[in-house]
Design goal:
The protein has about 425 residues and is of the alpha+beta class. It has nine helices and twelve strands. A five-stranded antiparallel sheet has the order 2-1-5-4-3, with helices on both faces. The protein has a five-stranded mixed sheet with strand order 7-9-10-12-11. A hairpin with a 6-residue loop joins strand 4 and strand 5. The longest helix is centred in the middle third of the chain and has 57 residues. About 20% of the residues are buried.
């Protein structure tokens, strides 16, 4: 009896302890549940606070998946992308990006997939009814999709409109480029002027030296009559050359200052061409050049300055004669095209290189062949005088050694 009583008492004690333990565990579970509910409540409050901050933040926020599609966005993103009243969820961000910004956008995603902590890119967006918009896209990776709670590769991103900054930067770069180009052009012009002045000095000095040499020889009175005649002819030719050179320089100066006036009268263009041809014929014959001239059968009436027109044609003929070797051919043709008279001067001379062709009518444009070419003012004066007559002048050439063609177009008299 005593043994059974003792065992019964022991069982009663164990059961009581078990009940106490259960009560303690229940109390602990209730405390844990309370703490869990409090934690859950704090998480919900934090999530709601985050959602409010996300939705009403002063920056456009959005979440992108690994394919670059929008998974979530705030209201400012809608405004920035010009999609008011439309949900952007599921839309590929690439659909709003210009073709030129596609490569940097895909590189942006690639860098994120490689594990970069933060990636920043500038992209151009195409937004309806707006000029091109530039944005700075900053993305950081996250392994949690906050919209569904599922785990996946999500990139939280911010969009900042940098269009104004980009425009200012582009304007600054364009201004810098223009300044650099202007400086380079000014330096090139200064070099060209230096070369031009050197050539002017040479061209002026050469006839002066001839005049000085022959005048000294003539003063000795020891020359034969034939030599005296040669000396006098050389002096005359040198003076004429220098006179033409000075007159060309003065014409350029007058044209640049706008002080060259034309005496406009009705005249026959063929007569001006014939006069220029007659004046240039001795120089052409001296070089054994052939000149073919076709003025047509009917007179061509224009309103112009006869002396200046002869100067234009004389300069062009002189230029062709200078650069055409002995035995070459110079062709002059005039025809009517619409309401213009078109005169072409074609020679079989040394031609014009592609690099010199755009410059042959410019002042101070002196190539490496300046010694042979001279000042090059004849073409400059011809261009300006043609312009004063309301016409145009142009030049073409197949290249060095293949001759050249200069075309003058003048309006017919109304």
């Amino acid at each position: 009896m005593k043994g059974r009583f003792a065992k019964s008492k022991l069982d009663s004690i164990d059961l009581h302890q078990l009940l106490v333990d259960l009560e303690l565990q229940q109390t602990e579970l209730e405390a844990q549940n309370t703490e869990f509910r409090q934690t859950q409540q704090r998480l919900e409050e934090s999530h709601n606070c985050y959602a409010e901050l996300y939705d009403f933040a002063p920056v456009a926020y959005l979440s992108l998946d690994s394919q670059g599609c929008i998974r979530r966005h705030n209201q400012l993103t809608v405004v920035l992308l010009g999609r008011q009243g439309v949900s952007l969820v599921g839309m590929p961000l690439a659909s709003l990006i210009t073709p030129g910004s596609m490569p940097p956008f895909f590189e942006h995603l690639r860098q994120l997939k490689l594990g970069r902590h933060q990636v920043v890119s500038e992209l151009a967006l195409t937004i309806k009814n707006r000029p091109q918009t530039w944005v700075r896209l900053t993305s950081v990776p996250s392994m949690v999709d906050s919209t569904s709670g599922a785990y996946g590769r999500i990139y939280h991103s911010a969009l900042i409109d940098v269009t104004e900054q980009k425009t200012l930067e582009d304007e600054r770069m364009a201004s810098l480029y223009r300044e650099t180009a202007a400086r380079a052009e000014a330096e090139s012009l200064n070099r060209a002027k230096d070369e031009f002045l050197a050539t002017v000095s040479h061209e002026l000095r050469t006839p002066i030296q001839s005049v000085l040499m022959w005048s000294q020889l003539l003063q000795t009175r020891k020359l034969k009559d034939a030599d005296v005649n040669i000396g006098l002819a050389t002096i005359e030719q040198s003076v004429r050359t220098q006179s033409r050179l000075i007159e060309s320089l003065l014409d350029v100066s007058r044209l640049m200052l706008g002080k060259l006036d034309l005496e406009l009268t009705p005249l026959d263009l063929g007569t001006c061409l014939q006069s220029a041809f007659d004046a240039a014929r001795p120089a052409a014959e001296a070089k054994l050049l052939r000149i073919a001239i076709d003025l047509g059968s009917a007179p061509v009436r224009i309103t112009g300055d006869g002396i200046r027109l002869q100067q234009i044609f004389g300069n062009l003929l002189t230029n062709s004669i200078k650069f055409t070797d002995a035995g070459g051919l110079i062709q002059i043709a005039m025809k009517i095209i619409d309401s213009e008279a078109q005169i072409t001067f074609t020679d079989t001379g040394i031609g014009i290189s592609k690099s010199d062709l755009p410059l042959i009518f410019e002042r101070f444009a002196c190539s490496n062949d300046c010694a042979r070419r001279g000042l090059g003012l004849g073409l400059t004066v011809a261009r300006d005088l043609v312009g004063l007559h309301g016409g145009t002048i142009s030049a073409t050439s197949a290249g060095a050694g293949k001759g050249a063609t200069v075309t003058v177009a003048l309006p017919l008299a109304s």
